[in-house]
Amino acid sequence: MSAFPVSLEKENQLALRMTALGVREADIEESFVRSGGHGGQNVNKTSTCVMLVHRPTGVQVKCQETRQQGLNRFIARRLLLDKIEAAKNGFVAARRTEMEKIRRQKRKRSRRAKERMLEGKSRHAAKKAARRPLSMD
Questions:
Q1: FRET label pair with 92: which of 5, 29, 102, 129, CA 20 to 30 Å apart?
Q2: What are the pLDDT digits (tens) for 3-15?
Q3: pLDDT tens-place string over residues 13-39
């Protein structure tokens, strides 16, 4: 009997992904809490919401997408693997470079850059002034 209410193929893909990322089932702390929102009496009476914590990395995931606890367990594991993979593959580094770029953009211009920019603006203003029609004052 399978551990999750999904096809055996999906369960095998999850297991392969866990081994590829080096995540063991023993490293995952699983707890069940009551969900909220849609689902009616089933949600209010049963603990269908799944909380997973990956102890080595400290990554935490909470899933209450469906009314079935077993399916939420499967989805929560996928979300946990997504977060761990994102952290390992350097999306954190990409975010850091994006923040550095914004910081550089907000930084004050150097004196030379400011002079060059103002020079260009005055050149543009002179060009526009030359296009104006002559007034008969």
A1: 29
A2: 888 999 999 999 9
A3: 999 999 999 999 999 999 999 887 777
In which domain, by residue range, is 30 found?
Answer: 8-89
Whole-number Cα distances in Å, 9 to 4, 13, 23, 48: 11, 6, 19, 24
How many domains does the chain divide into?
A: 2
Assess contact for 37 and 64: CB atoms under 8 A.
yes
Which residues, 6+ apart, have CB-to-CB distance to 115 below 8 Å?
Answer: none
Spatial distance between the Cα atoms of 80 and 56, rounded to a whole number of angstroms: 13
Amino acid at 78: R
- Tokens read off for 72: 């939420």
Cβ atoms of 51 and 61 closer than 8 Å:
yes
